[in-house]
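RECORD TYPE: inverse folding
INPUT: structure tokens
STRUCTURE:
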């Protein structure tokens, strides 16, 4: 009997998928989600034309997705404990594919935004559930390598997204930016359902529903108020929305101090390193991610390029960001993130300066590509070490809360940054905004190119200011390697 059980156990172990196989499937899921974070950036101009919408309105297709993505991050630990990691992952991938199809069928801007929110709500659970599956399947000594493999999604998605999106927009249809996720999602469901280990009983966590109902609407109201400035609304209307957003956020912060299981554990901010790293990421990500929508618009509105060309021109920055992220993440373990992050921010800031200077009506594409690579390299080398500093310096029990907080902050501030820069750009475009530019003849657009380029140059001053401001908290990040300090 014992021999039979042993043989059965050995056979089961031999049939169990290797952790690297699981990691590669997770990369496919991560790429699908990260693609939709970047692919829409090159489509903003075309979608504005198609739906005859202002820039401040159409940007909600990107912002709504990011907000929904961030809103689901705090629920991940509860959902894994309630439904199981594998079941949650499969459900999230299916929901993302469904949301993608619906977005591809959208008939106006409100329907598009609504379906993008569906995508974001599902996509926000794909990465946390997948990470849980990988951690449980991996041996401690191989986790670092597997995490590096899983991180390929961060490189491939932003690299391929703009180029693929531009090609689909010009050669096929903008709708296929979303339809393409259906076959990818079906492939993931087939592979994951077959290869991922079955769920084991997990620890159920409480979900802070009141906190969720305060924070998510608060952030949405705040960002909506910012975008209303870009739509030319009177001063009172945007300020009311901003005030409502700030009031809800403040109420969330007060409640979080006393809740047993808050979405964000404010006690984490008692650590100098955690506070400095998280604030650094908040300010930096607001400026850095906010500009991802600007360059494609510049190439299309000012230089008259197609969506496909605009997407290809975004690839050098994405490549530099992905490579720098991989290198800096490993280097942070050796020399400490506090030594890397300030230098990386300075590199990114220099790229923003060069970008603002060169975004003229006839600026060199080589020069712009160089500036884009500096921005991307600085961004990639800032985010990963800052995340390392924030999450590795906390206790084992606080690690899930720290990871949740960091991901929520970065995702939310990316949405805030996108809304802010589009509102500022909208306010500096000629009367009629982006819709008026679409109605121009080629000759009229060429004559207005210098004015349009100047609007983009002035807009870049906002992210530049934010990136430079991120240096202040960055200097407070501990300079020693994580794990060598307890504060």
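DESIGNED SEQUENCE:
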């Amino acid at each position: 009997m014992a021999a039979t059980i042993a043989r059965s156990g050995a056979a089961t172990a031999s049939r169990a998928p290797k952790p690297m196989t699981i990691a590669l499937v997770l990369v496919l899921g991560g790429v699908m989600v990260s693609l939709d974070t970047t692919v829409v950036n090159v489509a903003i101009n075309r979608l504005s034309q198609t739906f005859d919408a202002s820039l401040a309105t159409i940007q909600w297709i990107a912002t709504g997705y990011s907000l929904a993505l961030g809103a689901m991050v705090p629920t991940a630990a509860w959902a894994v404990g309630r439904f199981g990691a594998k079941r949650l992952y499969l459900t999230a991938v299916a929901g993302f594919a469904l949301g993608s199809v619906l977005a591809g069928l959208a008939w106006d801007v409100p329907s598009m935004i609504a379906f993008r929110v569906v995508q974001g709500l599902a996509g926000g659970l794909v990465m946390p559930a997948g990470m849980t599956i990988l951690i449980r399947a991996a041996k401690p000594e191989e986790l670092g390598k597997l995490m590096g493999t899983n991180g390929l999604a961060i490189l491939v998605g932003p690299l391929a997204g703009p180029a693929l999106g531009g090609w689909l927009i010009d050669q096929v249809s903008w709708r296929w930016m979303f339809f393409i996720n259906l076959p990818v999602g079906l492939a993931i469901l087939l592979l994951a359902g077959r290869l991922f280990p079955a769920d084991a009983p997990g620890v159920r966590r409480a979900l802070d529903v009141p906190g969720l109902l305060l924070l998510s609407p608060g952030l949405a109201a705040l960002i909506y108020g910012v975008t209303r400035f870009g739509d030319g609304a009177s001063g009172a209307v945007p300020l009311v929305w901003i005030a409502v957003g700030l009031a809800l956020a403040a109420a969330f912060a007060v409640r979080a101090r006393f809740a047993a299981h808050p979405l964000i554990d404010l006690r984490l901010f008692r650590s100098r390193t955690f506070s400095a790293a998280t604030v650094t990421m908040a300010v930096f990500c607001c400026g850095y991610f906010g500009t991802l929508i600007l360059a494609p618009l510049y190439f299309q509105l000012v230089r008259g390029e197609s969506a496909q060309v605009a997407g290809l021109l975004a690839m050098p920055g994405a490549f530099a960001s992905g490579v720098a992220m991989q290198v800096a993440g490993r280097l942070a373990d050796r020399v400490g993130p506090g030594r890397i992050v300030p230098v990386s921010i300075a590199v990114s800031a220099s790229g923003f300066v060069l970008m603002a200077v060169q975004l003229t009506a006839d600026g060199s594409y080589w020069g712009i590509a160089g500036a884009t690579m500096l921005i991307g390299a600085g961004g990639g080398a800032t985010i990963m070490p800052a995340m390392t500093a924030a999450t590795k310096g906390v206790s084992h029990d606080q690690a899930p809360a720290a990871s949740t907080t960091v991901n929520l902050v970065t995702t939310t501030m990316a949405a805030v940054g996108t809304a802010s820069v589009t509102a500022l750009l909208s306010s500096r475009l000629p009367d009629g905004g982006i819709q008026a530019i679409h109605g121009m003849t080629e000759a009229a657009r060429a004559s207005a190119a210098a004015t349009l380029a100047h609007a983009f140059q002035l807009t870049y001053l906002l992210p530049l200011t934010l990136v430079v401001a991120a240096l202040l908290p960055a200097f407070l990040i501990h300079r020693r390697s994580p794990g060598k300090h307890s504060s």
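NOTES: Confidence is low (pLDDT under 50) at residues 1-14, 482-487.
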